[in-house]
Write a structure and sequence with these properties.
The chain folds into two domains: about 5-160, no CATH class; about 165-218, no CATH class. The protein is built from eleven helices and two strands; from the N terminus they run H-H-H-H-E-H-H-H-E-H-H-H-H. The chain has helices at about 5, 15-40, 45-60, 65-85, 90-105, 110-115, 115-140, 160, 165-175, 180-195, 200-210; strands at about 85, 155. The chain has a two-stranded parallel ribbon. Helix 3 (about 45-60) runs antiparallel to helix 4 and helix 10 runs antiparallel to helix 11. The chain is globular. The model is unreliable at about 145-150 (pLDDT under 50).
Length: about 220
């Protein structure tokens, strides 16, 4: 089946349907955090992660929740278009459900967290931006070479399986070219040293070295 025939199959297989799906998910997740903030029930996260937000609500310091959620969100946004997986748990539930609300609350912005309708709108906007960023990164990097290396944007990998993506990214980068592989290895090592998800470091290192030493597509 050719790429053109796939594109002609309608909305459900179109590339630009992806941001809409992500926006819908994020809208519900952000509203779930609103429910927890107001009624103390409804957050779409593990108990340990919600406890970080709860500590901020009770103590007034949202630094831990904001840093934890934002780091996951950043790593998964980079990971999504390049390895083909957008981890709902790590990127959306943790990043949008905990990280973004914690950032807003730490800045004194409580409206989107306290108002249900506004939480739906803010969550949808965040999801739409994430979906667009992933599609644009994919279009101008992996898909720009007319090859996805067998990966298309999809959703569903959990944190348990996501931890194995780091080594796979490094191996794939090495197979692509030596400089890109070196960059991925160095990036993964740096993130590992700072106890961060190595997938994000491998992707950043590969992107930097790939920009300096472009891969020749024949």
């Amino acid at each position: 089946m050719t790429d053109q025939s796939i594109k002609n199959q309608g909305f459900w297989l179109s590339e630009w349907a992806f941001p809409i799906f992500v926006a819908t998910l994020c809208s519900g997740i952000f509203a779930g955090t609103h429910m927890y903030y107001v009624y103390h029930v409804g957050a779409f996260n593990d108990i340990a992660i919600v406890a970080m937000l709860e500590a901020g609500i009770k103590g007034g310091s949202y630094g831990a929740a904001a840093a934890f959620g934002a780091s996951f969100l950043f790593a998964r946004i980079l990971e999504g278009p390049l390895v083909g997986i957008l981890d709902i748990g790590g990127s959306l539930q943790t990043g949008i459900g905990i990280g973004v609300p914690a950032l807003l609350l730490s800045a004194g912005i409580t409206g989107p967290i306290e108002n249900f309708g506004l939480s739906l709108i803010v969550g949808a906007i965040c999801g739409l931006l994430i979906g667009l960023i992933i599609i644009l990164i994919r279009r101008y990097t992996v898909a720009g070479a007319n090859s996805t290396f067998g990966a298309d944007v999809m959703m569903g990998a959990g944190n348990a399986s996501g931890r194995y993506l780091g080594p796979l990214i490094v191996i794939t980068a090495i197979m692509a070219s030596i400089p890109v592989g070196i960059g991925a290895t160095i990036g993964a090592a740096i993130f590992y040293a700072y106890k961060k998800p190595i997938a994000g470091g491998a992707i950043i290192g590969a992107m930097i070295m790939g920009a300096l030493f472009p891969i020749q597509i024949v």
